[in-house]
Amino acid sequence: MKVKSRILMVAPRFYPAIGGIEKHLMNVCSILSDWGYHITIVTTTHEAFLPSSEYVGRIRVIRMPYGWDKSPLAYIWFLKNRSTLKDFDVVHLHGTIPTLLWYLPLRLLHCRIPTFGTFHGFERDPVPFFFKILRRIARRLVKRSICVGSFIKKIYQIECDVITIGAVQPQRLSQNKGGDIIYIGRLEPDTGITEYINALAILKQRGIELKMTVVGDGTLRYQLEEIAHTLQLNVDFLGFVEDPTTIMADHSFCVAAGYLSILEAFSFGIPVICIARSSLKHQYYVGVREISGPISIQTSPEGVADELVRLINNPTLYKRISERSCRFAKKMTWGRIARTYLRMWFGQNVDD
């Protein structure tokens, strides 16, 4: 295979960590490696036992010492390793912290290396003004940028050369759904998980008892378990699951937290319902609708419950949304995202 360009990715976390950015990097970088590009990822040592350097498939992974990413020691580490990190044709930075707090010294020293960025998600809801300023500064330090969600352009007021909501592996349209609900995401106040539990309680009051599978963990877990127990709701808390798609296909509905779980549900033809009580979350989910994703956006637990009842009582509508969801997901491939990166770096005429 013809040897192609050397690409350096700098990201807050990578495999074996689990999360949306980690999956994004693994899929995009694996495809680019298969196409002949030399990929190196610099990231954190998020667990103390991880090696400082290793290969994950064809991807070279270099990790900063454990804990150094949270202090000015990150600058020192990058400067100390500048001879290793200078021989790249492209540098791509994932997020504000890697751009401003890690790679900045090399950005100034190696200013001739084309440097690009991907901005994933948001820090808090609402986003503090100071964080908006930091992201705007980070955007000025990269030549072009990919934004995961159109809300980033609106909320942070930065230029986004490409907007995406990510990608998903193709799945078969599931025909054996059990009528249950699945939630995948963090168990935190900003995700809407409490409202989804409340929607389940509203359905029970109406005489409709559904089961909810909750995949993920967070500070609200024990509180939510207590609420479910007190209200006698059928909620199964599974904690972290390395590959949630292994259990998703058996469910009829997905209540959404983030783009990744939305796309994974779509890939199985599972209708997605989300709750957006803030302006930020509304714009976050509208980003799916803007590219024709068939998502239902609600503003209250009652709205979520009403939408579930509407789909339960109308099998024809359910089937139509299910098939449309599956068709949408088939277009959202990781290969498509990988080509987006190549076009950004090298222009339109990319030979993979």
SSE blueprint:
Layout: E1 6-10, H1 20-34, E2 38-43, E3 53-56, E4 59-63, H2 73-80, E5 90-94, H3 96-102, H4 104-109, E6 115-120, H5 129-140, E7 145-148, H6 151-156, E8 162-164, E9 181-184, H7 193-205, E10 212-215, H8 221-230, E11 235-239, H9 245-248, E12 253-255, H10 259-267, E13 272-275, H11 279-290, E14 295-298, H12 301-313, H13 315-331, H14 334-346
Helix pairs in contact: 1-14, 3-5, 7-12, 10-13
* Approximate strand percentage: 15-25%
Order of helices and strands: EHEEEHEHHEHEHEEHEHEHEHEHEHHH
Which structural class is indicated by helix and strand composition?
alpha/beta
Shape: elongated
| Domain unit count | 2
Specify the biggest β-sheet: 8 strands, mixed
Output the CATH homologous superfamily of the largest domain.
Answer: Glycogen Phosphorylase B
How many helical stretches? Answer: 14
CATH class of the largest domain: Alpha Beta
Low-confidence stretches: none
Overall mean confidence score, pLDDT = 93
Helix content: 40-55%
Gap between N and C termini: 11 Å
User: What is the β-strand count?
Assistant: 14
Strand order of the largest sheet: 3-4-2-1-5-6-7-8
* CATH architecture designation of the largest domain: 3-Layer(aba) Sandwich
Q: At the third CATH level, what is the topology name of the largest domain?
A: Rossmann fold
Taking all Cα atoms into account, the compactness measure Rg is 21 Å
